[in-house]
Design a protein that fits this description.
Elements: H1 3-30, E1 33-36, H2 38-44, H3 46-83, H4 89-142, E2 147-150, H5 166-194
Parallel strand pairs: 1-2
Helix pairs in contact: 2-3, 2-5, 3-4, 4-5
């Protein structure tokens, strides 16, 4: 092989890699992926923190109520055990029925309380999640992202830190919440001045 043929071959290889490289760069530009950790965002935004505090308050209140009833049932059970030996069969059956009824009511109360807490959690978090999704969609358009994945250990096993938009989403959420809170305060002030 002559020197001229060698240069021609090398030039062809470099040209091919140049074309492939530029196509790969265009493909990377065309398909850009981002990630957002929705759970972290939900817990980090101010509205999420307030919702969590409210849920904990309600949960603790219901928990206290349930613990009080549970202690009362335990006391009633112990008294029944002590007195059952000296009770007539009819009195024992009646007392045992009362105890079973109270236990069933306690189980119903427990199930109802859990359902109420879960419903309250949905009621408090759905508006926050909806606003987070809107912010993510707007941010994806701005950043020209083709796809945004929820970043958690079940869905995304690895991603580059630069592709994680969670902190930006949190920041935008809190800034927009502050602005709307300020506008609400200002509109209330102007209503008071008018009246």
């Amino acid at each position: 092989m002559t020197k001229a043929n060698g240069w021609v071959g090398l030039t062809a290889v470099l040209f091919t890699f140049g074309i492939l490289g530029s196509n790969a760069a265009r493909a990377e530009e065309a398909f850009k992926v981002g990630t957002v950790d929705m759970q972290r965002a939900l817990q980090a935004v101010d509205a999420g923190k307030k919702a969590k505090a409210q849920l904990e308050k309600e949960f603790n209140s219901k928990k206290k109520e349930l613990q009080t009833e549970e202690a009362s049932i335990k006391k009633m059970t112990e008294e029944f055990k002590k007195q059952s030996m000296v009770m007539s069969d009819e009195a024992r059956a009646k007392k045992q029925g009362e105890l079973q009824e109270r236990i069933m009511k306690f189980q119903d109360l427990t199930a109802r309380s859990q359902g109420e807490i879960q419903q309250k959690e949905r009621d408090l978090t759905q508006p926050i999640l909806a606003k987070l999704r809107t912010i993510i969609a707007d941010l994806a358009k701005k950043e020209k992202l083709s796809l945004v994945l929820e970043k958690n250990e079940n869905n995304v096993l690895y991603s580059l830190e630069k592709d994680d938009y969670t902190n930006q989403v949190i920041s935008i959420f809190d800034k927009t919440s502050e602005k709307s809170a300020l506008s609400n305060v200002n509109s209330k002030k102007s209503v008071k001045k008018v009246s």
